[in-house]
Amino acid sequence: MKTRPGMRLARLARRLVTALGTLAVATGVAHAQPYPARPVTMVIPQAVGGTNDIVGRLIAQKLGEALGGSVVAENRPGAGGNIGTAYVAKAPRDGHTLMLTVSSTQAINPALYKNPGFDPVRDFVPISLIGAVPNVLVVNPAFPARTLKEFIEVTRAKPGFYQYASAGNGTLNHLLGEMLAGYAGVRLQHVPYKGVAPALNDLLGGQVQIAFSTPAAVLQHIKAGKLLPLGVSSPTRSPSLPNVPAIAETLPGYTGLLWIAVYAPQGIPAAVETQLQNAMKRVLDAADTREKLVALGVDLANATPAQLATLLTEDLARWAKIVRESGATID
User: Last residue of a domain, which of 223, 249, 275?
Assistant: First the structure.
């Protein structure tokens, strides 16, 4: 028995309606699927072992708990943080790739590198400012000064004679030394090392006399009397070194902090952005998280994502000026 053309068309139409209905249901389920739909990767653009790496792993764990999912920390170091940062800038914009980074990469590298591989403002959306880690100005005990005022007098009397160590050309502790020299009206000799550890080794051994470092790296040496702290780079005294004056108490306006923040690639869904920002607020409001961060030497922030965006804009301009005046550059 032959099927008339009209009957064949009717059957095809019914099949098409059924197929479209199935697709609509499947699409609806996909859209309704809660975030996160799979484990989230928290990229840390710096190497394992630093303060920001330790903070990143803590935040990844706590954020996973707040989201009701899994957040996995993943280090992607290289080129001062540029490699991991550029990777996140090009990641899918679905909220499943985040970045925990520091201001030396996000705010200083764009001035140091001709092509860092990312735009710190256009490529990212701010999620949360966690806090800031000050640097402490330390000297070898043989250095002939016990206060910052004495330090200025001693170094001013011998321009270019005293050496300060850094973790490398263009690093934060290099630029803090340049900024200190500018504010104090002195001239210091910069000695770049390949990392913090060799710089501190020579400082402890007396081969160099001066350095800036995070409190976590030098606190044990300060307590043992092997290094003397003269000032911290935060605007006010740091809770981790309450008896050490801020450099700004002697040199008003001097400040240089390594802040730590969470970003996502620009263009993630607005609902996911809000969910992440709210989850990070819960993480940072938790007493146990705050206690652990303070123990790591982090001065906790209480800032909105909009305030983080403003901080980045201000720091980009400020560090660009300092980098330009120091002559530091990395190709």
Answer: 249
